[in-house]
Every structure is written in C-alpha cells, then in structure tokens.
C-alpha cells in the first residue's frame, strides 16, 4: 500500500507510526492510494502486536485501540502501519483497505472476528460480524495472510442491537 495524506494538514504519513503524537487523537483525514483509491483514516493510539492490516476496535473517549476479538463492541478500523503500544498512527475507516484474514478467506465474504486478535474470517460466528466490512478478494491478495476489504465505518455490536 502506498497511501498518502491528501489534505494539507496531514503531517505524519498514513503508513508510518510514530512514538511522537503528531496530530490530535481522533482526527479523521482523507487518504489516497494509487491502487486502492480514496479512503478515510482516523488517528489513534497503537496497541501491542499490531501489524499492517490488523483490525482494531477503538474507544472514542481516549482513542485507544484494542486488537479485534470475539464479542467486541465499538467502532472498527484497519491499521495502516505496525502501530504498537506507545505509538500513534493512522487506521483506515472507509474505502478499500487491506486487512488480516484467516486461511481460506473467500472473496465477497462477510467478515467475522476470530479467536486470533486483529484478524477476520468468513466463518459465521453469531454476534461477531464486523458490520460495514466486506471481503473484496480472497486471501493472498495483495500478499500472504491479507485480503482486500471494502469498509465503510465498520463496527461490532456483539449482536446486542436489532
């Protein structure tokens, strides 16, 4: 991925993480990639074991992130860098993204949280569907362990909402 900020106020490149907070937490910016087109990203605190493509839930109170897990509740984003604990970075919330997936993930599939933090699968798990997220390729595109996703402000509600 070669995402870059397309708004003048973006100082930290969307694909870079930093030990220095370079933007207001929760800032949303337009981003663009020559392959994947336009998208949106939010500036968040990193989380341990985060890699490019990790799915996270985030807390709008302090903009901390947690690797996506079964039974999660809250907004979901996809890491644009390996933004680990103690760092800050951009996480994609809209557009065509690249995310971590389980083996045998199928094209055009719904996405569900798995027992592996930060990863989604197409196997149906009641209450664990990531709404606003759909697979746009099978596993391996663009590289091993990843798949293209179409996302539009994804979230999880643990099936507590109708």
What layout of secondary structure does this protein have?
Elements (H helix, E strand, L loop, with lengths): L3 E2 L22 E6 L3 E9 L9 E4 L6 E3 L5 E7 L8 E13 L9 E4 L6 E2 L7 E7 L10 E12 L5
Describe the global form: globular
Proportion of helical residues: under 10%
Major sheet: size, sense and barrel closure?
Answer: 11 strands, antiparallel
Q: State the end-to-end CA separation.
A: 36 Å
Structural class: mainly beta
Q: What is the number of helical segments per DSSP (H or I, 4+ residues)?
A: 0
Number of self-contained structural domains: 1
Number of strands: 11
Strand content: 35-45%
Rg from alpha-carbon coordinates: 14 Å
H-E string: EEEEEEEEEEE
| Contiguous runs where pLDDT drops below 50 for at least 5 residues | none
* Overall mean confidence score, pLDDT: 93
Key terms:
162 residues, mainly beta, eleven-stranded antiparallel sheet, globular
Molecular structure report:
This protein has no helices and eleven strands. The chain is mainly beta. The protein has one domain (4-156). A hairpin with an 8-residue loop joins strand 6 (73-79) and strand 7 (88-100). The termini are far apart. The model has no long low-confidence stretch (mean pLDDT 93).
């Amino acid at each position: 991925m070669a995402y870059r900020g397309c708004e003048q106020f973006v100082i930290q490149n969307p694909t870079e993480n930093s030990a220095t907070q370079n933007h207001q937490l929760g800032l949303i910016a337009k981003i663009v990639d020559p392959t994947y087109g336009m998208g949106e990203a939010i500036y968040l605190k990193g989380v341990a074991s985060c890699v490019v493509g990790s799915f996270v839930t985030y807390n709008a109170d302090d903009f901390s992130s947690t690797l996506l897990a079964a039974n999660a509740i809250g907004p979901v984003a996809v890491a644009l860098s390996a933004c680990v604990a103690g760092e800050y970075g951009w996480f994609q919330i809209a557009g065509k993204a690249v995310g971590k997936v389980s083996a045998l993930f199928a094209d055009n599939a719904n996405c569900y949280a798995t027992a592996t933090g930060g990863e989604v699968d197409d196997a149906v798990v009641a209450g664990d569907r990531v709404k606003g997220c759909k697979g746009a390729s099978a596993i391996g595109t663009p590289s091993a362990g990843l798949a293209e996703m179409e996302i539009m402000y994804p979230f999880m509600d643990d099936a507590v909402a109708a």
